[in-house]
Amino acid sequence: MPCWVNGVPAEGVPVRDRGLAYGDGLFETISVRQGRARLLDRHLQRLQLGCQRLQIPLGIDSLRAEISSFAMQVGDGVAKLIVTRGSGMRGYAFPQPQQALRILQGSPLPDYPAAHAEQGVKLFSCATRLAEQPLLAGIKHLNRLEQVLARAEWQDPGYAEGLMQDHSGRVIEGVSSNLFMVDAGQLLTPALQRCGVAGVMRAEIIEQSERLGITCAVRDIGLAELMEADEVFLCNSLFGIWPVRELAGRVWERGELTRILQNNLHDLLGG
Amino acid sequence: MPCWVNGVPAEGVPVRDRGLAYGDGLFETISVRQGRARLLDRHLQRLQLGCQRLQIPLGIDSLRAEISSFAMQVGDGVAKLIVTRGSGMRGYAFPQPQQALRILQGSPLPDYPAAHAEQGVKLFSCATRLAEQPLLAGIKHLNRLEQVLARAEWQDPGYAEGLMQDHSGRVIEGVSSNLFMVDAGQLLTPALQRCGVAGVMRAEIIEQSERLGITCAVRDIGLAELMEADEVFLCNSLFGIWPVRELAGRVWERGELTRILQNNLHDLLGG
């Protein structure tokens, strides 16, 4: 699988890159099918929001062309994009001038069991809580130690994902996915103003549900409310939608609304 | 100045290193004088604590020898050490087996104005607040976007450092230093259980003050209490101690206790 740094094949990055020094950058995990980067507009939109928040200057149009060329080489797989603030000397102050670094890494499509999408997955309750930092909430930055620690909490492959809450006990997301629930026909997903990553698939599902005439509320959700939900599902840009089958002893069947949204996504992602 | 990756001269790191992907690692900024790494035991102690918290396996004894050899090449300057969890495939789960990566970067001694230590420095009040994450508090991990954003708040070189508070308004630290205050002859420094980096110079000063018969309390400190302090100073492993001359209109002179601690450190660091 190809790997590019600043648009050319390479396997290394400069030792003084600030992505390495401080996690000073952003990333996107992009599904590539038949040589095309899926949901690319949404990925670039979120990246642009991240660049604004972190004040990283980046030419989005040339990056779009670069990702499209890269996706052709990947064919079917995953294109992981990392954008950093580039190299600098010691110290937190921005380098002058700033020269963002772009990395594109190809990898094969993950080999998810088909049962995950059909029968649903078991969700681990992570003890690692997400800190509340509004300045970094929503964007997909490179400071991911909370996710690393949360993912290290379980080794049992019976758990396909882990549930993360914030320090106040609000339900926020999966370690590498977003979360939705259905309550009395209404779709709900946690607000992400304080912490969490606003996934591109989450945005896609919110928009699709509106088109289907299903209202989707974005607000704070407590654990008790989640446990009483009629349906619960996870989503991300690689696996689409997985129903949640079990969490802390509570068992769900794949629900009707989950199935409708899965079918709806199928055409978008598979083709 | 030399740069080593895993003990040999190199200028790049593998593109799949988890330090770059997730900030999944730790660092130390070590003062080197006359070919010797200063406060090395304290740096290695903190690094070891960080490795335990992040579950990164690392041989400290061989690393100590490596840093000492590196310091000989640096002579007088700074040795920045980065330890990451090493390379892995996509995804937050630890790679199996884990193979930590070690980077040593040399750089010249920073050219601090002598007046900073003698007349003191002006402190900028950062609006960026530190999130509370007990799992990561105290250690010097690579997730440093809060410091990057805080440092970007001022360009005026009249400010030598910035003051950071947590979301509850407690005073925590400087952007790249720790903070002490003196109140009625007693030394105080903020508790760092929720956020902040427990600096090696902070630990050194706490221990030295005890030896001098000065009690040092480590506890929560509010901004109002700081503003009423008799003396305020900053410290880190490179500049030692800088008195704070001004913060938000409040002006201090260099205090007696600050001067005593500065003199005490001088022998340790300069020689």
What does this protein look like?
Chains A, B: Pfam families: Aminotran_4 (PF01063). Chains A, B: Its EC number is 4.1.3.38. Chains A, B: Its cofactor is pyridoxal 5'-phosphate. Chains A, B: Homodimer. 2 copies of one chain form a homodimer. With 271 residues, chain A is an alpha+beta fold. Chain A has 2 domains: 105 residues, Aminotransferase class 4, branched-chain amino acid transferase, N-terminal domain (D-amino Acid Aminotransferase, Chain A, domain 1); 157 residues, Alpha-Beta Barrel (D-amino Acid Aminotransferase, Chain A, domain 2). Helices cover 29% and strands 30% of the residues of chain A. Chain A has 8 helices and 16 strands. The first copy, chain A, is globular, with a radius of gyration of 19 Å. The first copy, chain A, starts with a strand and ends with a helix. At the A-B interface, β3, α1, β6, β7 and α5 of A face β3, α1, β6, β7 and α5 of B.
Brief digest:
The structure is a homodimer of 271-residue chains. Chain A has 271 residues and is of the alpha+beta class.
The span between the termini of chain A is 21 Å
Number of domains of chain A: 2
Q: What is the strand content of chain A?
A: 25-35%
* Strand count of chain A: 16
Order of helices and strands of chain A, N to C?
A: EEEHEEHHEEHEHEEEEHEHEEEH
CATH architecture of the largest domain in chain A: Alpha-Beta Barrel
CATH class of the largest domain in chain A: Alpha Beta
Cα radius of gyration of chain A in angstroms? 19 Å
Largest sheet of chain A, in brief, is: 9 strands, mixed
Name the structural class of chain A. alpha+beta
Number of contiguous helices of chain A: 8
Q: Helical percent range of chain A?
A: 25-40%
- The overall average pLDDT of chain A, rounded, is 96
Biggest interface found: A-B, 57 and 57 residues
- What fold name goes in the CATH topology slot of the largest domain in chain A? D-amino Acid Aminotransferase, Chain A, domain 2
CATH superfamily of the largest domain in chain A: D-amino Acid Aminotransferase, subunit A, domain 2
Bulk shape of chain A: globular
Low-confidence stretches of chain A: none
Subunit organisation of the chains: homodimer
